[in-house]
Amino acid sequence: MQPRRLLLIRHAKAAGGPVDRERPLTADGVRQAAALGAWLEHAGLVPDRVLVSPARRAVQTWEQVGAALSTGVQPIGDARIHDNTVDALLAAIRETPEDALSVAVVGHNPSIGELAGVLDDGRGDPVARRGVESGVPAAGVAVFDLAVPFAAVAPGVATLRNFRVPGD
Known about the structure:
InterPro entries: His_Pase_superF_clade-1, His_PPase_superfam, Mito_Ser/Thr_phosphatase. Keywords: Hydrolase. It holds the Pfam family His_Phos_1. This is Phosphohistidine phosphatase. The chain is an alpha/beta fold. The chain has one domain (4-164): Rossmann fold. It has helices at residues 27-42, 56-67, 79-83, 86-94, 111-119, 126-133; strands at 4-10, 49-52, 75-77, 102-107, 141-146, 158-164. A six-stranded mixed beta sheet has the order 3-2-4-1-5-6, sandwiched between helices. Helix 2 (56-67) links the parallel strand 2 and strand 3. The radius of gyration is 14 Å and the shape is globular.
């Protein structure tokens, strides 16, 4: 089996608003997301499948990230990501087709941070682990290598390779 990669991305900095789902990115959030896209491109971490929360801030985050990438991967909106639970994220990830080698999930805390914490098998980069443990800030990304198909993703089966926050 070819190795697979999972990128867990928290949406960039968002403005407040009366309706959570409609909160837009701030100007700083737009810059963060663009910087994240540039970093993903430079690091060779361009996903071939992207699952995005339907919340405006998550959609806008991927629009900015995607604009910086050399390939035009089209995001797939998935309401389960906005449910903001580890179980909902795992359910969405497990439906990934077998031919996908790299999946990005653009979502929200606490579920992005919680999933990043429980997926890690403890054999990855200790600096990245400390970053995840301190909390996934806006536009943060945790990069995992998987030795199992996406259908088998579960706690403790992924190796944390990198953790990045644009501008760090």
